[in-house]
Amino acid sequence: MLELNCISHGGDTVTLQFDGKKVTLVGAPAYDNPFSGPGCCCYAPPPKSALPPPSIASLNLLHSAYDESSHQLTLKAAIPKHSNGMLGVETFQLEVLERDKSLKWCQAVMKSAYRDSRPGKRFLVLINPFSGQGKAKDIWNQRVKAVFDAAEANCEVIYTTHANHAAEIALDFDLAQYNAVVTVSGDGIIHELINGILKRPDGREVAKRLPIGPVPGGTGNALVVSLLGHEAGADPVVAAVQVIKGRGMDMDICSITYAQDHYYSFLTQNYGITAYADLATEGLRWLGDTRTTLGVLKEIVANSSYGAKIQLDVVKDDKAVIKRGYNNACSLPRRRTISGGATSDKDMEGSSYGGPDDAGSGSGSADETHQGKNREFLQHADTQVLTARTEAENEPQSEQNGSVGTVTKTTVHGEIDNVNLAEEQVSSPSSPSGKPAVKSAFPESLPALSQPLPDDWLTIEGDIKMFFTSKVPWIARDLLSHPCALPDDGLLDVLILGTDVTRADSLSLLPKFETGAHLDDPKLKYYKIRAFRFEPRMKPGQANYVAIDGEHAAMEESLHPTFLEIVNESHLHAHHEAMRGNANPETHFKVTVVSEEFAGKTLMQRHRQLYALLDNEIKGGVHALSLKAKTPQEWTKE
User: Fold this and answer.
1) What is the CATH number of domain 2-113?
2) For residue 506, what are the contacts with CB-CB under 8 A and spacing of at least 6?
């Protein structure tokens, strides 16, 4: 135990105790305003009743330094500063009485605080100001920037301005100068970032070396919630601390052949109810995580079903065996990838995702395995940076019949790949934008889409309600869809819900997705697979959605835009009555599309083309659209 006697600005004697794991401020009275913003804390008069001395875990300690000229000790840390328990940065400044001990005390604190990392790292920070509810810029400026400043990190900040901007940055920047790339957005920027990295001549080496640190700033934050947990994954300050302190971890990806193109997915692939919830609720992004739940609920009430042919290379189909395998994996050591450092044996604990919400080890049932909302991927208490040893994911392209989200004919073929890159890269076809597509880092091991599959694959053909594969357990903070998903088991987790369930059955299943208890429902099939082939069977008049990592490229395929921006302005028209006399608020959008497809067309022809593509959304309640349709040449002049 190291102790250091100090005096606060209020004249109180404070003893700083450090036991190697935490700093305790003995004798420190209560804060004057515990829910204030970043800054120096001010002490109020001592409370009437004694309170436990405040303690700060080493993980949340960001900086400690002693100034010999002023005899001031500065301690910066992330502590609870909001009424909802979320963290904020606090700076403690104390006058030291035992000056000969000060330097040793500060050095010990910094060594513990950065035991698996080092201070003063250099980060490239990508912020999508349009992400989700449009709050990413404020999240950075008001909450996250203070964390990196306190840790004396060197941050280069870029705000993305258009679709695929992150991919362009990853392609053009000298990434060797950064210790990690930080994304303040939803999951989409991560897709673009990895995409751009793997188009580089040195993409293989960069992907192996450069970690990606996600900070929640969008509607879809499935990756960071799965890494850190249901509660901590929603706190951008917690995520920022984990990026600064965390160790990289490997994660499998799914290699996708979709029509004539080849993509990579590190989150989900889905069709049916869940794809609708992802893609048909774009106009409800202002609702945050709630929009996904509402989308699922709408399809359940409509009792929708979808035609499909599904073929699976099944490894496990017994739920009890899958649960045991998950819990066994959580207790096994696994090696994490650390950029620029070694891994000690004590760091190799657990084999699943995890974070600050973790508590204990799992047992048999799904809800026991995750113990409500505080039991995310187990036993990775400080593993918080996703290593970018993944391949890129592009949005799926498909043939269209002119309606957004309606696929007339396509086949999806997916297989899981280990993140270790192959020695040779194989070029894939050019992307719709005309730029070279992402190079495949994996040799193809499955037959071409036109070729038959082995006889031992499971085939499911007919109507279903949901086909849903994932590498992560949480697709939203309130949807624990794949409770036994593991980051690096080499397998995909698959949910299939058939049409033998009633509307009432489906409604009773929905709340169980919050805890993973749906896994125990006998009508819902859960598989561990190596690969799949999927072919949607369209129904007349039905808009069928196929989503890869929550993205769909219906408009992209039809227009090949170089720029696409959709701004929700519904809040400006909240006083209007909804269309058809509905009591729900209208949805108003400002849509800007830049595409070569508009060349030679009149303004009316361009708008008609856009309205045709948006026909399904307009029928679903989009009332007002402000359209801007430009060619790249026209857009450059503006």
Assistant:
1) 2.30.29.30
2) 300, 303, 465, 497
* Burial of 270 (C-beta count, 10 Å sphere; 0-12/13-18/19+): buried
Q: How far from the centroid of its chain's Cα atoms is residue 161's Cα?
A: 20
Distances (CA, A) of 116 to 35, 79, 246, 567: 30, 20, 7, 42
SS3 133: coil
Q: Is 420 strand, coil or helix?
A: coil
Can you tell me the distance from the alpha carbon of 557 to that of 401, in angstroms, rounded to the nearest whole number? Answer: 11
Domain covering 254-319+391-548 in this structure, CATH number: 2.60.200.40
Per the structure block, which two tokens stand in for 359? Answer: 């508590």
Q: Does domain 561-637 have CATH number 3.40.50.20?
A: no
Q: Please state the φ and ψ torsions of residue 74, each to the nearest 5 degrees.
A: -115, 130
Q: Annotated active-site positions, please?
A: 187
DSSP designation for 139 = H
Provide the sign of the torsion angle of the four alpha carbons 85, 90, 93, 96, taken in this order. positive
- Spatial neighbors of 93 by CB under 8 A, at least 6 apart, are 9, 40, 72, 73, 74, 75
- For the chain, the structural domain boundaries read 2-113, 122-251+320-387, 254-319+391-548, 561-637
Helical spans, DSSP H, in 448-511: 503-509
As beta bridge partners, residue 124 has 156, 181
**Could you identify the residue written with the tokens 């002023």?**
70
- Dig out the tokens for 28 from the structure: 């420190």
Mean pLDDT per 10-residue run, the chain (638 residues)?
87 89 81 42 39 80 93 93 84 88 94 90 95 85 96 96 92 92 92 81 82 88 89 92 85 70 75 71 60 70 82 94 91 48 31 40 35 32 28 29 26 46 26 33 59 90 91 86 89 91 84 90 93 81 67 39 55 46 52 80 81 60 68 76
For residue 246, the one-letter residue type is G
Q: What is the DSSP string of 66-117?
A: EETTTTEEEEEEEEE-STTS-EEEEEEEEEES-HHHHHHHHHHHHHHHTTTS
**Rounded CA gap, 362 and 74, in Å?**
41
Type of residue found at 491: L
